[in-house]
Predict the 3D structure of the following.
Amino acid sequence: MISLNYRDSRPIYEQIEDGLRKLIVTGALGADEKLPSVRALAAQLAINPNTIQRAYNELEGEGYIYSVPGKGSFASANAGADEARRRELLGKVRELLAELRYLGVSQQELADLVKEVFA
Amino acid sequence: MISLNYRDSRPIYEQIEDGLRKLIVTGALGADEKLPSVRALAAQLAINPNTIQRAYNELEGEGYIYSVPGKGSFASANAGADEARRRELLGKVRELLAELRYLGVSQQELADLVKEVFA
DNA sequence: TAACTGTATTAACCGTACTAGTACAGTCAG
DNA sequence: CTGACTGTACTAGTACGGTTAATACAGTTA
């Protein structure tokens, strides 16, 4: 479900955040679908439950999931309300595109990439 | 020339790397143009020269600049040879696009962004 | 009741970013 | 040649944050 890369300098909880966010935005995790419990995912990944909780906490702050004490954590129906993150991501994409252009990637190739993602 | 954000969790040397990389790929720093010396930039940013050196080191490893002992550091003529970085960036863009789609950004809007970068 | 859920708190360990200080060799203008 | 610049290298110390560990508590549910 999620893979960790210990060689990556990025913290584990961020890798988990990204992994879950990806599952949600790609539709692999449907709305109101139950996520693994904090302890279960910790056991599966062989890491501390606190690290999982931290990832869940931040994802809840971003609106991607919601947690109910005693019941569990679930994928949010719609996280599209996060305008700040949208602008942040657009800024990142803009910088990456500029560098890719410099690296010789054609406009056509990038346009195709956009089409592919929306296909 | 370069601004640091101490609230950012990312290391200073990475922020410097990104700043210089941006100056290079946007053409603000032309080919073989001289970069500030390790000590000069360190003084300007009020940080330790070692941190600057680390950033320069990594940028040289990526081919974005080259350094000559005794002379200085300079922007590379062509950094397009870095195929690994190209693929890395393309992967990142793909993930960002998927999330932006989920956040409600239209395909047209992203296609326009590509056009704008290449304008 | 028992086993699950999320949540909270505290202490400790450890990697690493960063600083500080120093040193050496190459370059270049005076 | 001299002196001031350049990049480079190394060591030592500090500080911060990620991660683990061990508990504890309250809500949920079969």
